[in-house]
Design a protein that fits this description.
With about 725 residues, the protein is an alpha/beta fold. It has four domains: about 200 residues, P-loop containing nucleotide triphosphate hydrolases (Rossmann fold), CATH 3.40.50.300; about 100 residues, no CATH class; about 170 residues; about 210 residues, P-loop containing nucleotide triphosphate hydrolases (Rossmann fold). The strands form three sheets. An eight-stranded mixed beta sheet has the order 14-15-13-16-17-12-18-19. Strands 3-4-2-5-10-1-11 form a seven-stranded parallel beta sheet, sandwiched between helices. α1 runs antiparallel to α2, α3 packs across α4 and α11 crosses α16. The longest helix has about 35 residues. It is globular and about 85 Å long. The C terminus is likely disordered.
Length: about 725
């Protein structure tokens, strides 16, 4: 073993020895050893022939992943005089790392450990904007921001009490309160530290944004909340971030350079989906009022700084608006042909748009590109002026902010039209959507790549030197192949994989019961009716905590409508209140010796930690196949078929297997839990793909129930080992 690896492993052993009540976990030891060996051999910085190592480690629930990678990763970062960047997918894990795991590690280290949480700009207030709006929130509409309501489907489910106020009154109260808190030193400008979260439209008017920021040329730069946080990152050995920020920051210098730090992607199974989201693009075809404002703003800014515009921006903006309206009419006609209502979606088969759409899209792209060049030229001149003459910094920052508010809209038109026009060997997903949930017709056009592995390989892995990807759900159906393909790591010679088992005794602690319904799960109405009837009988037996996971909101509504009598008081439904309040209510009922059952959807099937009596049974209504209407997955399946490949076997089954592993993972959370998983989908035992999914699950004691009678598992599954 390399000396650095021995150093890292020694740090792990010292940490666990100093942990009160620590239980020996062979899987954690194996994980720490793999991390130490992998990361100790990498070379960082400018190298002619750099050495890389990427470890992919699946660690079952209870292994203690964070302790394994924190102790070894920090020791190596200190020895190599570099930084450790830890990326997560959820706020819950970030909170755990920052408030529990890192302080515990710091307490046993011989040297001080500095760690910090990295967030995007939008989580911080822009004091320059806030000062402009205090006492005059209408300035947001007149000078900086065009307030508008997004469709209801995109607004948060739980609004604060302040949202009931008149919008103008609400903004006055909010901006005054924020300003006083900043001035009094009781708030540092971080949105997440506010007791009540503001309305998204209100916050956006004062949020720090790249397009509206002149950085060190801003007169409030020294007091800036975002740049203060950035300076703290520069002092930290450990930086905690999220996958979105890490991918969005590539080449932006917000985080350490990928070739000069060590990386940990916890909850790494989310990386492929995050990559697709980063490279997706959409444009609004409904609210085009900003195009009336754009030429006026460009002209006013150019006059202010006495720079002649290179193009006729009024004509360009008018032509762009005409072209976008033309496209919107085509979208309306197409959606009405395909659907009777306005809430609709249409995907272009094989990513091929009608020939008649090419001309308007080409016009849109050309006009947007021309306006974008003018906007960028003005922005560059404003920054130059602020740099060369500090007395003009205040004026330049204001003008730059006016331009910056319009830049994202223009960029979305430019980027989306470019992707919609793109035709290559690998098609893109291209689709249209209409939404009337806000009371008005809201039209959008979308485009997105369909293979996340290609995106990650090109943007991330080609620069990374040393990384760990870990999660409890990286393998599917007993193999890492699906994740490696999705993550862009398949065939990479520097990648090693390891699966370490959970310390839990699943055969003794858990049971998996598969219920054989008469109705075929493909018969949606018949199956749902029979499943709900059996579910209600099972729920009547619940003594303490239970979780029911549904595959659709419609399915959950049918079950909820069937709940009667005393069971109504016991059922808590996702979406009826904030998640934290719902969990607290559930815990209170269980602690009061009352039965409590949570009805949830996909987001409750992952990351929900309900140990002991809080979740003694997990009921799975149906195998968690993804919604068939997802346009990106539809497009990818269509493309694979053209290549003679089977998307169901190649994509759908392994993705569902990972999701099923996550859902069943809500049952047993520690060494003392006793829990049962009940799945009402007979395909888990009867089909080849179901038995493939079983192979990826922990080795629960397996049985089936037919006609209310529980017996041995289905013939052919006796050899199931997990």
């Amino acid at each position: 073993m390399l000396p650095l690896a021995e150093l890292a492993l020694g740090a792990f052993e010292r940490m666990v020895a100093a942990t009160p009540g620590f239980r020996t976990r062979p899987g954690q030891q194996a994980m720490a050893q793999q991390i130490a060996q992998g990361l100790s051999g990498v070379t960082l910085g400018q190298q002619t022939e750099p050495s890389r190592s990427i470890s992919v480690i699946q660690a079952g629930t209870g292994v203690g992943k964070s302790a394994a990678y924190l102790s070894t990763g920090v020791a190596l970062a200190l020895a190599l005089k570099t930084r450790l960047v830890i990326s997560t997918a959820t706020v819950a894990l970030q909170d755990q790392l920052m408030s529990k795991d890192l302080p515990a590690l710091a307490a046993v280290l011989d040297t001080p450990l500095v760690y910090a949480l990295a967030k995007g700009r939008g989580r911080y207030v822009c004091q320059f904007k806030l000062e402009r709006l205090v006492g005059d929130p209408g300035a947001a509409d007149e000078e900086l921001f065009e307030m508008q309501e997004a469709p209801a489907s995109s607004r948060p489910a739980f609004a604060s009490a302040a949202s009931a106020l008149d919008p103008q009154e609400r903004r006055i109260k909010l901006y005054d309160a924020l300003s006083l808190a900043l001035a009094g030193g009781t708030w540092d400008g971080d949105r997440d530290k506010l007791a009540l979260q503001p309305e998204p439209s209100d916050w956006s008017a004062v949020a720090a944004e790249r397009h509206t920021c002149t950085a060190r040329h801003c007169p409030r730069y020294r007091q800036c909340s975002y740049y203060t946080a950035r300076s703290q990152l520069a002092q930290a050995t450990v930086i905690v971030a999220n996958h979105d920020l890490v991918l969005a920051s590539i080449g932006m210098k917000t985080l350490p350079e990928l070739d000069n730090c060590l990386l940990v992607f916890d909850e790494g199974h989310h990386l492929p989906a995050v990559a697709l989201g980063q490279f997706a693009s959409s444009m609004d075809l409904s609210n085009l009022r900003w195009l009336d404002k754009l030429p006026r703003t460009l002209q006013q800014v150019s006059e202010k700084i006495q720079i002649a515009l290179a193009q006729d921006v009024t004509t360009l903006a008018q032509q762009l608006k005409v072209a976008l309206n033309d496209l919107a009419r085509r979208v309306m006609d197409l959606l009405k042909l395909a659907n009777t209502g306005y809430d609709a979606q249409h995907r272009f088969r094989n990513g091929v748009l009608p020939e008649a759409w090419h001309a308007p899209l080409t016009l849109i792209h050309g006009h947007a590109a021309g306006l974008s060049k003018v906007l960028e030229a003005l922005g560059a001149e404003l920054k130059r002026m602020a740099r060369d003459d500090p007395t003009q910094a205040l004026s330049c920052s204001l003008q730059y902010a006016r331009l910056g508010q319009l830049a994202p809209r223009l960029n979305s038109v430019l980027g989306t039209s470019s992707l919609l026009l793109e035709q290559g060997p690998q098609p893109l997903a291209k689709w249209l959507r209409s939404d009337t949930s806000s009371g008005l017709v809201y039209l959008t056009a979308h485009a997105c790549p369909i293979v996340p592995g290609d995106l990650l390989r090109q943007s991330l892995w080609r620069s990374v030197r040393g990384a760990l990807i870990t999660s409890a759900t990286l393998s599917s159906c007993g193999s890492f192949d699906f994740f490696l393909q999705e993550a862009g790591l398949s065939g990479d010679g520097d990648v090693t994989t390891l699966a370490v088992e959970s310390p839990f005794d699943y055969r003794e602690q858990g049971r998996l019961i598969v219920v054989e319904t008469e109705a075929d799960p493909k018969d949606v109405e018949g199956f749902t009716r029979e499943m709900v009837a059996q579910l209600l009988l099972d729920l009547a037996q619940v003594q303490r905590g239970a979780l029911v996971l549904f595959t659709s909101r419609a399915q959950m509504k049918v079950a909820l409508a069937a709940v009667t009598g005393a069971l109504q008081d016991a059922v808590l439904v996702q979406g009826s209140m904030a998640r934290s309040r719902l969990i607290s209510a559930h815990q209170a009922r269980v602690e009061a010796a009352l039965p409590s059952v949570i009805f949830g959807l996909q987001s409750f099937g992952e990351g929900l930690d309900l140990p002991g009596p809080l979740c003694e049974t997990v009921f799975i209504a149906k195998l968690p196949f993804a919604a068939p209407s997802d346009p990106v997955q539809e497009a990818r399946a269509e493309w694979l078929k053209t290549l003679g490949r089977d998307p169901f076997t190649e994509l759908v089954v392994p993705a569902t297997g990972i999701r099923l592993l996550q859902w069943t993972g809500r049952a047993i959370r520690n060494e003392d839990d006793q829990a049962t998983v009940v799945c009402y989908d007979r395909r888990l035992l009867r089909t080849t793909f179901g038995r493939r999914m079983l192979q990826g699950l922990p080795p629960y004691t397996l049985s089936r129930r037919v006609g209310g009678v529980e017996g041995d598992s289905h013939p052919g599954t006796q050899a199931f080992q997990g």
